[in-house]
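Hey,

The postdoc asked me to send both predictions to you directly instead of through the lab channel. I've kept everything plain text so nothing gets mangled by the mail client. Protein one:
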Amino acid sequence: MQDVNQISDAIASNLFRVRQSIADAARACTRSSDAIRLIAVSKGHPKEAIAAAMAAGQKDFGESTTQDALPKISQLANPSIDWHFIGHLQTNKARFIPGNFSWLHSLDSLELARKLSRRAAEQSATINILIEVNVSRDPKKHGLTPEALPDFIEKYLKENFPALPLRGLMTIGPHAAPEKEIRACFAGLRRLRDDYQRRFGLKNFTELSMGMSGDYIEAIQEGATMVRVGTAIFGERDYSK
């Protein structure tokens, strides 16, 4: 069994390799790596692993369940860290987001937005919002269809949620698909972002959260501003725990 120092060294080395590959991918498509935010997906990993990543300079972490995330956020309290909620959020868990997470990557209903807005107002908190879009139309995935997106944005803006600024879109690429299909999915999200940024005059609607450990290079090639990488940093999760 690895000791703490070995685990810390491995995570630091993994982070270095991922950052280098992000820089290489950005350079290859004449983008700046500074425009790409690495979200270290820490879901299912212990606080010690997250602390090791923090010690290696990582500032953004992604979690997908409130029950797993909240103890770690509390125990690793650090004002320089941004926590991102990246999983499907049930409306009855909305109360846990304001004050704990700076970003929500998975908004997919106005009911959820209303609950988040009320809770955020109570705590004088702001949550940066990404709308989840099911570009690949996978029935197993959450998110709005591309066709539903313009009506959703229009209604969202009319209801006016000042504590929930719209910052962009998120998608999950098709699983185990050819590169051409993966890139087509990510390019589709980019076009949606560009179209609705112009249509609704949303100057801060700039973010594209797309790409994970297996496809973040393709995501960067298609304009990702956030990549969500877990396994390549922390290794496989222990599902027995």
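Protein two:
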Amino acid sequence: MDVGGTSAVWNLPNALTVCRLLLIPVYGVVFASGFVKSAFFVLLAAGLTDVLDGYVARKNNQVTVVGRMLDPLADKLMMLTVILSLLFSGMISWLAAGAIFLRDAGMIIGSAVFHFRGKQTVPANALGKLTTVLFYVAIMLIIFQLPFAHAYLWFVIIISFVASAIYILQFVLLNKRSVGH
């Protein structure tokens, strides 16, 4: 049963999310082959599937539990792949990569644990979506080697932790209300 959406698992939004998951190794191969700027365009293609799947899911009432789990997982796995590629190529520091990894791993593990314990999960909010866009901009600035790229990345890392704190608060409030009903 699919609470809060359609019961169809294989719909267009979920297919787009699977495409985004498949673009992760494509990005990795392109980046590792030395085509760093081309890899950024693979990342942009993945970002477009993210925007499109969310739009189609909401417009056509095709939001599914599977989609609500896979979509953020695909986003986080792509971002972790990108961060690792930037780290191992020396384009970002260990400290920046560690902060991003800590935040994203915590969000992935926390969401999975709570989902499998039957807790309600919080859908993406405007700040979370903005954070994703800001990370894309930071990655672009780093890949194209603009002088303020690393300062901007740290700004985005701080915003991402604020967004995570808001998600945690929303999660606690949502599940506190559902216990009372």
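Summary for protein two, as requested: Residues 12-180 form a domain with the Four Helix Bundle (Hemerythrin (Met), subunit A) fold (CATH 1.20.120.1760).

Thanks,
C.
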